[in-house]
Amino acid sequence: MSATGLDAFDRTIQKTNLWLQAVEEELGVESKHQAYHLLRVVLHEVRDRLPMPQTAHLGAQLPTLLRGVYYDSWSPSLKGSKEHREEFLLHIAAEIDPALNLSAEAVAKGVFRVISQKVDAGEIRQIVQTMPKDLQSLWLGKAAA
Questions:
Q1: Residues 36-43: what's their mean pLDDT?
Q2: Do residues 65 and 14 touch, judged by C-beta distance below 8 A?
Q3: Which pLDDT score is estimated for 141?
Q4: Where are the alpha helices (DSSP H) in 82-138?
């Protein structure tokens, strides 16, 4: 018997747990709660800087449960923020537990590596190309190509 009794819910929970495990390993954090918080912060910061089509395309690539997290508190009437790298990282830094001893840049790059592993490479290229220029360098690996 499945955990929820609904295959779609069980699958999205399983996929979300895989994403959280990847974030835990990438950032060296010790709990799913920490991984969830950091993933959520970075997803929101990316979402708020993308034009509408890329926001929707990225959302469509996420497991259903993470898609809900991604769109939580989003206002589609706002255009993509053009804040620069410093402000982007300051928003992330404000949400990092100091006990984790992680920089905002390390968190952003780590989450970007996980997203790059989990999301279609073509979609990642489009996302990176539409982000403000000074944020593009935070993406590594295939996404930076």
A1: 98
A2: no
A3: 44
A4: 85-93, 104-118, 121-130, 133-136
